[in-house]
Amino acid sequence: MEFRFAKEEDCSKILDFIRALAEYEHLSDQVVATEKQYHEWIFEKQIAEVLFVCE
Rg of the chain's alpha carbons, rounded to an integer? Predict the structure, then answer.
């Protein structure tokens, strides 16, 4: 098992994971963030981090 921090090209994957989790929890209507916002928060302002677990 390997861990890695998200790269800029992962923004669409991050949003896909969030949307899938929201759908599972029946909260899809509450997902309002965009790929652009995730890019800004994670890579520009660095106010969030994303860690992937890879096999």
Answer: 12
Beta strands in the chain (DSSP E): 2-5, 51-54
Taking phi over 0 as left and psi of -120 to 50 as alpha, with beta for the rest, 26 belongs to left
**Residue 22 neighbours by CB distance under 10 Å:** 14
Q: Do residues 41 and 47 touch, judged by C-beta distance below 8 A?
A: yes
Q: pTM for the full model? A: 0.82
Predicted confidence (pLDDT) per residue in 12-45, tens digit: 999 999 999 999 999 999 999 999 999 999 999 9
Distance of alpha carbon 25 from alpha carbon 53, whole angstroms: 21
